[in-house]
Amino acid sequence: MSTTLLRNQRVEADDYTLLADDAPLPATGKLIVSYSRWQAERDALLASGRAIGVKIPNTIDIAGVLPEIADRPLIALDFPAFPDGRAYSQARLLAERFAYKGELRATGKAVVRDQIGFMVRCGFTSFELREGQNPAACLAAIHEFSVAYQQAADHAEPVFLRRRA
């Protein structure tokens, strides 16, 4: 089943497949693998010559694993529950401090319409929508706020700097 995705402010079908840790490596296609599978099978995955993204749990220190994954075309960060916002911090580090240029994807149960605008501000470029979410409403959430009150990874000019000018 194809996942509905918001990517670069468009609704798209997901062209990546999340591969279970015990699933065999398919012959073709773009893949997302868990960080543990990446660690265990990195050489074989790289030898496949395919686009391989890595899904990082929100419990991992992103600075510590970045040397292993910095060249990946996609990094997926997990939001397993609504009150758990550690992936926001991981995203800001990747986008601001480490200047990660690949696709930064928000995944998990807590990727909801009300949070998407804030996720964009933290550096996310794509969002894996759950079944039943309205893609058009989620897309509209990106532009719901016209003024930013603080600096963030999206480089929107905060209102306090506008006032100074």
What can you tell me about this protein's structure?
The chain is α/β, with parallel strands linked by helices. It has six helices and eight strands.
Using only C-alpha atoms, the radius of gyration works out to: 16 Å
Report the mean per-residue pLDDT as an integer.
91
Helix content percent band: 25-40%
Low-confidence stretches: none
Q: Give the N-to-C terminal Cα separation.
A: 51 Å
Instruction: Enumerate how many helices there are, as a single number.
Output: 6
Q: How much β-strand is present in the residues?
A: 15-25%
- Could you give the order of strands across the largest sheet? 2-1-8-7-6-5-4-3
State the total count of DSSP E strands: 8
- The helix/strand series, from N terminus to C terminus, equals EEEEHEHEHEHEHH
Largest beta-sheet characterization: 8 strands, mixed
Q: Could you say which structural class the secondary elements and strand pairing correspond to?
A: alpha/beta
Shape, principal axes of CA atoms: globular
Outline of this structure?
This protein is 34% helix and 21% strand. It has 165 residues and is of the alpha/beta class.
